[in-house]
Each structure stands twice: as structure tokens, then as C-alpha cells.
Specification:
Helix 3 packs antiparallel against helix 4. The chain is mainly alpha-helical. The longest helix has 27 residues. It folds into two domains: about 90 residues; about 45 residues. It contains six helices and no strands. It is elongated and about 70 Å long. InterPro entries: CHP02611, Uncharacterised_PGPGW_TM.
């Protein structure tokens, strides 16, 4: 642990009392999100101050965001976090593109409103919403497997049940 200069002395320069440990020195911890956000903003501003850096940043953010969005869109029909990955790609784009910031704010507003509305509903309505979501995902998975791999899951399961 780092110590202050003259760490063996008490404040005022007196020697330490016997059996008393010196006061620990406070060390800045890098777990402060606002400070980290400020450093990131400063770094991005520094990159944007140079025309070449600005172009490179826009291209890098654009390509990275596009890759993440494309991966998310590929994963949307599959069970898992497809839409969450798409929103993550949108957040990457929002670092550099104003239209993406507006779209991300729109998405946040509507997801928050939907979540609040669902939590105010009765257990029966929430169960019906969950069942509808389950059926929708099931149909999407069934169609994806049938059209993508040529396997009809329903026919395969029915054939399996008929033989047992």
C-alpha cells in the first residue's frame, strides 16, 4: 500500500505513538463511472480534433456497430438476446451518429413504457402475454429450422411420439 511522504510521522511531524498504526493513504480507485465517462468523452474529443482521427473514428464506429447489429439481426429468430445485441450495436453507433442517438432514445422510451404497462397488468394478462411470446418464438424457431435446415420439427416429434 502506498504511503505518504513521511508516513512514519503523525500530522504535525511528531513521531508515531507506540502501538498505533499510521493512517492509511487514500488511493484513487478507477471504479467511478462518471469519471470514466468523462475520460472517455475527453479521449473522443481529442480524436475528433484531428481530421484524420475524426474520419477514422467514424469509420471504426460505423463498421463495429454494423457488425454487432448484423450479428444481432441474425440471432433475432433464435432463442436468445438477439434484440439486445441489436440495441448494443445501436449504442455503439450512438457514440458517433446523431440519428442513432435519437433512435436509441426512442427505443429506450418505448421499452420503458411497455415494461411499465406490463407490470401494471394482472397476473392473467401477464401470463397471456408470456404465452403469446412463447408461441411467437416457437413458430419463428420452427420456421427457421424448416426453411433453413429442411427439418420439420412438428412432423419429427409426431413421428417420434407415434413410434413410442
Amino acid at each position: 500500500m502506498p504511503r505518504q511522504e513521511g508516513g512514519d510521522r503523525q500530522p504535525g511531524g511528531a513521531p508515531p505513538s507506540p502501538g498505533v498504526a499510521p493512517e492509511p493513504t487514500t488511493v484513487a480507485v478507477d471504479d467511478d463511472p462518471p469519471a470514466r465517462r468523462g475520460r472517455l468523452r475527453t479521449t473522443l474529443d481529442l480524436i475528433r480534433s484531428n481530421p484524420t482521427g475524426r474520419a477514422a473514428l467514424r469509420i471504426g464506429v460505423g463498421v463495429t456497430g454494423a457488425i454487432v447489429v448484423i450479428i444481432g439481426l441474425i440471432l433475432v429468430p433464435l432463442p436468445g438476446p438477439g434484440w439486445l445485441i441489436v440495441i448494443g450495436g445501436l449504442a455503439i453507433w450512438a457514440v458517433e451518429f446523431h440519428w442513432a442517438r435519437r433512435l436509441l432514445a426512442f427505443t429506450r422510451r418505448h421499452v420503458t413504457a411497455w415494461t411499465r404497462w406490463v407490470t401494471r397488468q394482472s397476473l392473467l394478462v401477464r401470463g397471456a402475454i408470456a404465452l403469446a411470446c412463447f408461441l411467437f418464438v416457437s413458430v419463428v424457431v420452427w420456421l427457421s429450422v424448416k426453411l433453413g435446415l429442411g427439418i420439420d420439427l412438428v412432423a419429427t416429434v409426431l413421428k417420434y411420439l407415434a413410434t413410442n
